[in-house]
Design goal:
With 233 residues, the protein is of the alpha/beta class. The protein is built from 9 helices and 5 strands, in the order ααααβαβαβαβαβα. It has a 5-stranded parallel beta sheet with strand order 2-1-3-4-5, sandwiched between helices. Helix 1 packs antiparallel against helix 2, helix 3 runs antiparallel to helix 4 and helix 5 packs across helix 9. The longest helix is centred in the middle third of the chain and has 25 residues. The protein starts with 12 loop residues before the first helix and ends with a helix. InterPro entries: Cbl-bd_cap (IPR003759), Cobalamin-bd (IPR006158), Cobalamin-bd_sf (IPR036724), Met_Synthase/Corrinoid (IPR050554), Meth_synthase_dom (IPR036594).
């Protein structure tokens, strides 16, 4: 049966969720919007649509991206389709007070105007249930500090694609140390020229080589943070 013949509204819930995983994989934005609305009309809770259909679909995309089966252009299409579903769900999630994984402030560092990797991380993080505040490109240390102050995130993410702008990550982290706030946040860094040694050298919690790893790392640190807070309580 060709895709043209699939009528989303005629699928059972389970089939529809499965189809959404396939449509996300193929980056089919309109189909994701339609299927999201169908599940909501059938009485699905927004959070269930998010986790079972969208997040699970993006998890599959993330695994194949990590394993080199999918590439950046394809993942961006998937992420855009995911975003279309999120646009419908976001106000409903806010209204129902759905549980959040955590909050992340992310931006490309000063002097660097590359944003594909950063956008991908932001979309995948949002897809995993995080609130994401994207500061865009070319961010001086003040932008990060203001956003941290304003948003009180769990995670600060910094991205760089130029070897010349990479050292600026240390400027931001050192400034956080001077202000005595470094330990309050999980700091993740990423970008093509970086590596694990560099992440350690600048004082980040972790270096994430791609968006899928960023999501896994963020979840791991958040659960660790919750566990240590629970232990102290």
């Amino acid at each position: 049966m060709s895709d043209d013949e699939i009528i989303l509204s005629e699928l059972s819930d389970d089939e529809l969720v499965q189809q959404m995983h396939d449509d996300l994989y193929d980056g089919l934005k309109e189909e994701i919007e339609e299927a999201t609305r169908i599940l909501l009309d059938r009485g699905w809770a927004p959070y269930d649509v998010l986790t079972q259909a969208l997040v699970e679909g993006m998890r599959i995309v993330g695994v194949d991206f990590r394993d080199g089966i999918l590439f950046v252009p394809e993942v961006l299409l998937s992420a855009n389709a995911m975003k279309a579903g999120m646009t419908i769900l976001r106000p409903l999630l806010a209204a129902t007070g759905a549980p959040k994984q955590g909050k992340m402030v992310i931006g490309t560092v000063k002097g660097d105007i590359h944003d594909i990797g950063k956008n991908l991380v932001g979309m995948m993080m949002e897809g995993a249930g995080f609130d994401v505040i994207d500061l865009g490109i070319n961010n001086p240390v003040e932008n990060y500090l203001e956003a941290i102050e304003r948003e009180k995130p769990d995670i600060l993410g910094m991205s760089a694609l130029l070897t010349t702008t990479m050292p600026y990550m240390k400027v931001v982290i050192d400034t956080m140390k001077e202000k005595g706030i470094r330990d309050e946040y999980i700091v993740l860094v990423g970008g093509a020229p970086l590596n694990e040694e560099f992440g350690k050298a600048v004082g980040a919690d972790a270096y994430c080589r791609d968006a899928a790893v960023a999501v896994e790392t963020a979840k791991e640190y958040i659960s660790r943070k919750h566990n240590s807070l629970a232990a102290r309580a």
